[in-house]
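wait is this the right file?? whatever heres the structure
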């Protein structure tokens, strides 16, 4: 990109305000300041594409500031452009960090939910398999195991549903029922594993 016209800072401001010279002024800004401003962005973690995007936004912002009469020339144009680029880039970094945090939080939450759902499904399948097998037992065993595993009743509560003397008798009966159940399904190792998980 060859630029014939060269401007002092004051001349560049005047050229930006003059529609006839605006394109020439913009070309001059790119030629003179793009590399140094881009280098600043890359020194703060930006890629080459980031630097180009930020510089383009910086030029647009600078031209708007000048055309609105808000540029006070209290600093050199180079310093001012770097300052604008720095603000644009740091805001972009913050935006990306927030987006990254939200994405990680969402993924972590989704992973926990998926694990929870998988666990519920697995437990439902295991309990369904257990319930089907429990129905092959006698009446008393069926009642004890269903009340314990499906109604989640304590030994004391189960005692209120069955004609046993005390909680220890219920415990002993439950143990014998589980032994009986294990004996029935001994030929199927996978089901035995499931039963042991449930019967813990």
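ok assuming it is, sequence goes like this
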């Amino acid at each position: 990109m060859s630029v014939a016209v060269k401007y002092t800072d004051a001349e560049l401001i005047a050229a930006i305000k003059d529609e006839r010279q605006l394109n020439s002024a913009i070309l001059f800004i790119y030629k003179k300041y793009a590399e140094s401003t881009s280098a600043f962005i890359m020194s703060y973690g930006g890629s080459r594409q980031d630097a180009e995007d930020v510089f383009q936004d910086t030029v647009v912002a600078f031209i708007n500031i000048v055309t609105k009469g808000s540029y006070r020339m209290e600093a050199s144009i180079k310093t001012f452009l770097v300052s604008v680029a720095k603000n644009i880039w740091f805001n972009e970094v913050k935006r990306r960090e927030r987006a990254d945090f939200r994405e990680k939080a969402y993924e972590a939450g989704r992973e926990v939910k998926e694990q929870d759902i998988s666990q519920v499904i697995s437990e439902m399948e295991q309990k369904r398999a257990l319930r089907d097998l429990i129905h092959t037992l006698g009446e008393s065993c069926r009642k004890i195991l269903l009340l314990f595993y499906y109604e989640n009743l304590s030994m004391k509560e189960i005692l209120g549903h069955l004609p046993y003397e005390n909680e220890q008798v219920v415990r002993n009966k439950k143990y014998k029922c589980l032994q009986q159940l294990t004996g029935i399904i001994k030929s199927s190792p996978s089901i035995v594993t499931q039963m042991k998980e449930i019967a813990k």
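The chain has two domains: 9-102, 135-198. so i think its the right one actually
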